[in-house]
């Protein structure tokens, strides 16, 4: 295909012209034709630099598309993974940092500035401030507990954690859209995912726990008793390990099985009787205390959805083996651990070795990044407004909406190709795809000067400019109560589930809705100026991915209105499971060198793999249709690549990236996405159009005889 010499030539040419191009722009040429022309060169340069054209695309397409990028990038000391995708996130944080410097008259923006600035000042906060705040934790009992123990009531402690600190430990109790009726809310009780990641790094973890406990005790002037602290923290770790073991043994598929049966909706009273986790634990009391924090009265016949019953059965057994003191210390530890980043530098230093063992990183992120991330996560509308004003081109909304329409049409047309589905199920799938609602960019109200809605989101927050740590506690409580309060409210279908300044995309089964925040609507995913081949391979693939989530092993259990309802015929349902089995085996066969040869969990990543495979297929077909209607685009200058090839290369380049081995070993156990490399290989190996575009012979790595396909 491409020879090295022709590419070297192309590469140099590109750099040369690119620098001329920049000069032209600064001289003030604003002709849109020139802009488009410059974009072609700029894009060609980006694509060629990321590639390794000396490698054989049919053998290792990931290396071919990403080799150049991988060669030229070193993972930053503070990162556990570094990819084109991650770099977009880093760059977005730089934009947000710049926004903080500017003033804005919107009160909500002032709030977010407060939070940001108070954090930046974090290191100057007098030490007394945080130890005072630590004292205000419900019970900081890394000390002798025997006097309090008889009066220790588990229901009270867990509900305090839940409602005041938004920390749901041992029992996950929360308010969410009712799976059976997406218009209303209901209480859920579920397993808390245990911190299984720690299992591999026990020694570093234990040392981390012990140092923090000692530091806090010293700050609070407790008696020094190292042996007691060491023994106690060892017990806490054992307790946590046992909990993690049982919560992680409930495999994704088991939870999903529960999910698809309706037998698990109970009112509190029968639940009290039927679950083994009811000795010494009164569910009514627990739920009542949590909900009383938002003045909601709960009676014993309140309906509660329970997922993960086997976990609750095991929980009883584990709890009975440990004294109340250890459980209490466990609760406080988990709370303190989350807050380490918000405390003085010496606390962060205590976790350096632990982080090294867990993520392979040797440096913390610079503080301003943590600040920006925190404020963006917690005040997403205010920050979103700043971001959109600065960096989002208004007409993108319409163009993306148009792309969504095209990909959706292809999803529906493609149903006809599927032999494993009968007509009735196809009709239902079509109805569901048609009914998917979309949110693009940002909610309009955040940009309106006169709209109080934005300010109202924050009016109850009581932030103080020089009290960062206290502000984070205030924020935890406010977040917990915001979601608990919804129990008696109708679901607001128009509310945005995510901020605008986010490089990601979403599908919500309860809403049957796809969301593309402004943050992802940028190159390489999307640009008004870039070739449509690249837009379809980028954002087009993302759109297809999110739509397909509505039909993956989880999404398929919900109907077009977001209600959990089995709309499948027996025939189609059975064949769906067979089709997915192929993908489970395919991905399970990937053995990842970076993770010491561990195999990808085909079952754990199934939903994402189904979405990746559907997404690339739909986007490709939609692009081919676009060309039939609109005609061929110009070629990228200096690159001897067809548009079909560019489509696949841009798709792959979104996922160029590398992992630290420590993080690879952790993420292969916990990430529901396949490793970046296998996201690319897996979906392209299954797609004939890819092999055609690159003339791969049957039997090559990228064109295996056996192919898996669900959608
Ligand atoms: C471009 O690629 C085609 C086929 O892939 C090849 O025949 C042609 O020689 C290439 N042109 C150059 C200038 O490398
Ligand atoms: C601990 O003791 C020191 C010195 O006596 C005192 O300055 C400090 O305020 C005390 N800290 C707390 C949290 O009581
Ligand atoms: C984890 O659970 C399994 C059974 O579910 C049990 O056999 C094993 O001993 C447990 N391991 C630990 C460390 O508790
Ligand atoms: C749980 O607490 C409620 C309210 O205090 C009480 O009415 C009920 O009898 C208790 N249930 C059990 C099983 O102890
Ligand atoms: C501060 O604490 C909150 C709540 O535990 C946590 O989510 C957040 O990540 C911390 N902030 C920073 C900057 O680490
Ligand atoms: C579908 O399968 C279930 C159980 O597998 C069975 O009870 C039911 O009768 C079947 N329905 C039809 C229409 O075949
Ligand atoms: C690899 O795939 C084959 C079938 O294609 C399957 O039998 C085997 O179990 C898979 N290997 C793993 C580790 O899942
Ligand atoms: Zn996904």
UniProtKB/TrEMBL annotation:
A Pfam short name: Peptidase_M13_N
Alphabetical keyword list: Hydrolase, Metal-binding, Metalloprotease, Protease, Signal, Zinc
Any one GO biological process: protein processing
Coiled coil in keyword set: no
Cofactors (names): Zn(2+)
Gene Ontology CC terms, in alphabetical order: plasma membrane
Peptidase M13 C-terminal domain: residues covered: 504-710
Signal peptide: 1-28
Coiled coil: none
Protein name: Membrane metalloendopeptidase like 1
